[in-house]
Design a protein that fits this description.
heterodimer, A: 11 helices, B: mainly alpha, 10 helices, globular
């Protein structure tokens, strides 16, 4: 078995259902070393997929292995796997340091104190580590939970919405930490419903929609899928009627509708239209007041991805 | 089979937030009532067995065990923090055994030892020793059952209360056969064996209590290990 096999996660035709509700539907993927982002709207099955990978769910159908062996009902898998669940569950009466040290002891590490210092240092929690967890902010709780999951230096780290509740500075630090862990050859998988978060950190993105794997690849490939799609913009300008007639001849524009609220422009290409309209308005001497993507919600992006 | 780290966290959770004061109220009532009766009814030799056997074994002991036994693991299962224990290579049987041991120890402190003290306050040393022995045995069996319930259902407290109130409190008093599955009566059987002739109303014999108690303890703990080994986290669902 190679080092890559030791830290790889394999899913073959994995489905998970609860009664009549299908949470994960026939997902096949291989996740290797580096940072992988599970991107999808709420309810897409990201958490279920992470719980399956973490051995906290048995697949209803299909095969799932971590390091070459099933994760379900196999506690020894946690010697090489760390999990940070969504939410804030921790022991509020323990200090951050006690919490991480307890994790080190439960993993039977030879030097729990040193491992605790290292893990707490990684998440930049040295200052408040002797305060009780009950006094921590949401972001601090999240970081101390990440420290506990990292204390045994696992080959595989799974994190469910790790950036929730973090302020921008903490978010950047966490992104940097995940990137470093990924570069050091570990397999890092995290879920998020925010495209920018995933794009910032993940080398590989797995897009989940309604339980299915909708798209997979590096960020550029996913971004291309999203930006080169037809798109609707609402445009308000100093002279909507003249702008409409100027727009209609442009290659990036598929159709224009004049409405009481301004122009509804069907762009053939999101990126090309965004670049084109500013120059066009300037050339025509028309003042642009507002340019809004009308269907920019994540759901519409995912709906497009699923349809393509 | 015992993990000191888990034991320490469990103990701090069990006794934190002034919970120890809450647990101390029923046994203090038991000891206080015994002291008052000792002063007011010195001539009646039957009340210690009635008060400490009936009130102690059917109210104080089972309810203390219920609150502690269902919370040592159940509270962590409910709020999800049990994942911090389960996402480690610690064998599930060690987690269950440690939680069970801590719950039993706390129950002994807050329910079995007070039986001994109340018996001594009542001025009946032999009865006090019998009550202690019976309460020790009952604390073990009750906690095995309640730890098991907390791995099986999120309503372990309600299920346990139903057992204590309906089965032990009502049915076991009305139907003699129901006492065969009453942990309270197993405890009373042990107490009676240590302190015979004390008007403790044990509904089962010592042998039956020993065999059934061992079966219930082993069976419920094995079931708890099995349930915890299959612990699942529900995710988001579309």
């Amino acid at each position: 078995m190679t080092a890559n096999d030791m830290s790889s996660i394999e899913l073959r035709g994995v489905s998970q259902w609860y009664g009549n509700v299908v949470a994960v539907n026939d997902v096949t993927m291989t996740i290797g070393p580096g940072v992988t982002g599970l991107l999808g709207p709420n309810g897409a099955g990201k958490s279920t997929l992470l719980h399956l990978m973490a051995g906290f769910l048995a697949p209803s159908r299909g095969e799932l292995t971590v390091g070459g062996a099933p994760a379900w009902r196999r506690p020894d898998v946690y010697s090489m796997l760390g999990l940070v669940t969504e939410g804030e569950s921790a022991y509020p009466f323990l200090t951050g340091a006690e919490f991480v040290r307890a994790a080190a002891r439960l993993h039977r590490l030879p030097d729990p104190a040193a491992a605790t210092r290292r893990a707490i240092g990684l998440v930049d929690m040295v200052g408040p580590m002797n305060r009780r967890i009950s006094t921590y902010s949401k972001g601090m709780r999240q970081r101390i939970r990440v420290a506990a999951a990292l204390v045994h230096d696992p080959e595989v780290l799974l994190l469910d919405e790790p950036f929730n509740g973090m302020d921008p500075r903490q978010r950047l630090q966490m992104m940097d930490l995940l990137r470093r862990l990924g570069h050091s050859g570990r397999t890092i998988v995290f879920s998020s419903h925010i495209l920018e978060e995933v794009a910032e950190v993940a080398g590989t993105i797995q897009v989940m929609v309604a339980g299915r794997l909708a798209a997979s690849g590096d960020f550029r490939a996913i971004r291309r899928l999203m930006t080169s799609r037809p798109h609707v913009f609402v445009v308000r300008s100093g002279d909507d009627r003249r702008l409409a007639s100027a727009l209609i001849g442009r290659p990036a524009v598929r159709g224009v509708e004049l409405t009481a609220d301004g122009l509804q422009v069907q762009a053939a290409d999101y990126g090309a239209f965004s670049l084109d309209i500013a120059g066009l308005a300037r050339a025509e001497g028309i003042r642009l007041r507002e340019l809004l993507p009308a269907d920019e919600s994540l759901e519409s992006v995912f709906a497009y991805l699923v349809a393509s | 089979m015992f993990n000191p780290t888990i034991a320490s966290i469990t103990l701090r959770a069990a006794l934190g937030r002034r919970r120890a004061l809450l647990y101390a109220i029923p046994p203090l009532i038991l000891i206080g009532v015994s002291a008052i009766l000792r002063l007011t009814s010195p001539a009646d030799p039957a009340w210690p067995a009635r008060i400490l056997g009936t009130f102690g074994f059917s109210v104080v002991l089972p309810l203390t065990a219920l609150i502690i036994g269902t919370s040592v693991l159940g509270a962590e299962v409910d709020d999800g923090s049990v994942v911090h224990l389960l996402a480690t290579p610690v064998p599930r049987r060690v987690i269950v055994a440690t939680k069970f041991a801590v719950a039993t120890a706390v129950t002994i402190v807050f329910a079995a030892v007070p039986e001994l003290l109340a018996g001594l306050v009542a001025g009946q040393g032999r009865l006090a020793l019998g009550l202690l022995a019976g309460a020790l045995v009952a604390a073990v069996i009750y906690n095995a059952l309640f730890v098991c319930l907390s791995t099986a259902t999120s309503r372990a407290l309600v299920a346990g209360l139903a057992y204590v109130v309906i089965w032990e409190g009502v049915l076991a008093n009305l139907v003699g056969g129901a006492r065969i599955l009453s942990i309270s009566h197993y405890g009373l059987a042990v107490a009676t064996a240590v302190a015979p002739g004390q008007a403790l109303k044990a509904g089962v014999g010592l042998t039956a209590a020993g065999v059934l108690g061992a079966v219930v303890t082993a069976g419920t703990l094995a079931a708890a290990v099995r349930r915890l080994g299959s612990f699942t986290l529900r995710g988001d669902t579309a």
